[in-house]
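ok new one. same drill as before - structure tokens go in, u give me an amino acid for every spot. 417 of them this time. try not to just spam alanines like last time pls lmao
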């Protein structure tokens, strides 16, 4: 008998390794998951139902809820995603110490229409200067276009890039590195300036460690742009689909501006005279909220008689929560006046609304977002006459992170007023 035959029987070694992997991932995992919610794990170990889920995640969530009840788990690419779909259980997500936001992964989306591009172009320059300080990032025609193009590619693959090693998504990783380099340059420039914080990003750099500052700055850019741009797009698309809402807004604009057409200034006073636009924005956020927000389970807990184990990703879907008839009658309709019941003066949203998340990790940019979108919509409606050329597109079911993007292109014809 040769040494090779004795000690290096490769088929046996490979079979043993596979058996160990099988025991480790399948058997032990299953033992650890006793009394867990109904789990949809498919027949492929580790991958689970990742492929089916990835094809149309938003639709998958609702079908799984109808089939398995309000609490269920999906195994996708080695991760157990546990969904809570009953508003009565959302406190486990928002207010419990058993789950953690920072350990969870955050992601994004994309798809374009002409109106969407218009918003992206207008908002990019304005928001970049606002968040990062005038001149921190070059915003001339050529540089802002380059930043925007690279950001769009980054946003497009963010959902996958945050899960898969850079090696498999080289283009995405190159965009990320390019953007991080931009923020590193901003950081170096800001460090040379006086330490008195003025822009949001300067304040951020004062509180986080220097090494992670560019990553936080990139998160800030993504979190602001990936939501505010599509929401602004949807506000105008809804207004041009519901003419009675558009005429309410137009009347309010006429009353607020009168015949002052020469110099258009949108300040706090003007904004306060345009509450119907704010209601339209909130109603749009209700209808086009992110498919999911996530937390990581750091301490096991019980919900509806099931045990949610440590390590699961806990998921809540604002998109589906906003279609709960207990809180929103006729939930698919665009009805800005339902927001008359909210005390927006005191910054209270409607019961059942979780468009900005909730608890400790609620969106810190929500007031900035409402204000910037309000100003932008006011300026566009006051400056331009728009005519929709396409019907209102459906939201894309392809991605679940960040604001829903349109499935199809939505073109508008516009002329100066
Ligand atoms: C309409 C626009 C926006 C919507 C719908 C929105 C929505 C959200 C949601 C749902 C979350 C997750 C909250 C949770 O998990 O409980 C979030 C997080 C966040 N948002 Fe927004 N957001 C918007 C605009 C903005 C803007 C303009 C900024 C920045 C100026 C911003 C900065 C952030 C940041 C930094 C986080 C992460 C929070 C953390 O790490 O604790 N968002 N946003």
């Amino acid at each position: 008998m040769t040494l090779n035959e004795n000690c290096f029987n490769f088929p046996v070694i490979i079979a043993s390794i596979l058996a160990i992997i099988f025991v480790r991932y399948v058997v032990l995992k299953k033992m650890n998951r006793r009394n867990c919610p109904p789990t949809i794990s498919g027949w492929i170990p580790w991958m689970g139902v990742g492929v089916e889920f990835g094809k149309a995640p938003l639709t998958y969530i609702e079908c799984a809820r109808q089939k398995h009840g309000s609490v269920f788990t999906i195994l996708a690419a080695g991760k157990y995603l546990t969904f809570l779909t009953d508003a009565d259980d959302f406190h486990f997500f928002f207010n419990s110490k058993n789950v953690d936001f920072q350990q969870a992964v955050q992601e994004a989306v994309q798809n374009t229409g002409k109106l969407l591009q218009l918003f992206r172009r207008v908002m990019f320059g304005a928001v970049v200067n606002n968040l990062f300080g005038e001149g921190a990032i070059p915003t001339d025609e050529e540089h802002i276009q380059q930043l925007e193009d690279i950001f769009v590619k980054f946003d497009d693959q963010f959902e996958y890039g945050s899960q898969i090693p850079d090696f498999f998504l080289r283009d995405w990783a190159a965009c990320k590195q390019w953007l991080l380099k931009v923020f590193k340059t901003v950081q170096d420039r800001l460090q040379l300036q006086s330490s008195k914080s003025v822009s949001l990003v300067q304040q951020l750099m004062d509180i986080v460690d220097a090494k992670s500052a560019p990553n936080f700055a990139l998160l800030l850019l993504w979190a602001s742009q990936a939501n505010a741009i599509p929401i602004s797009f949807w506000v105008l698309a809804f207004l041009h689909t519901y003419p009675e809402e558009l005429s309410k807004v137009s009347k309010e604009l006429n009353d607020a501006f009168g015949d002052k057409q020469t110099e258009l200034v949108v300040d706090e006073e003007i904004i306060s005279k345009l509450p119907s636009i704010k209601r339209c924005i909130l109603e749009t956020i209700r209808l086009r909220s992110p498919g999911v927000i996530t937390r990581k389970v750091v301490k096991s807990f019980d919900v509806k008689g099931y045990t949610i184990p440590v390590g699961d990703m806990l998921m809540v879907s604002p998109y589906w929560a906003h279609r709960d008839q207990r809180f929103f009658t006729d939930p698919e309709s665009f009805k800005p006046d339902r927001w008359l019941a909210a005390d927006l003066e005191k910054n209270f949203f409607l019961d059942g609304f979780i468009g900005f998340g909730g608890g400790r990790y609620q969106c810190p940019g929500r007031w900035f977002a409402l204000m910037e979108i309000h100003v932008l919509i006011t300026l566009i409606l006051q400056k331009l006459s728009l005519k929709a050329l396409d019907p209102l597109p459906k939201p894309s079911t392809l991605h679940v992170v960040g604001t829903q993007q349109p499935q199809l292109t939505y073109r508008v014809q516009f002329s100066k007023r």
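The first helix runs from residue 3 to 7. and btw The two ends are 93 Å apart (CA to CA).
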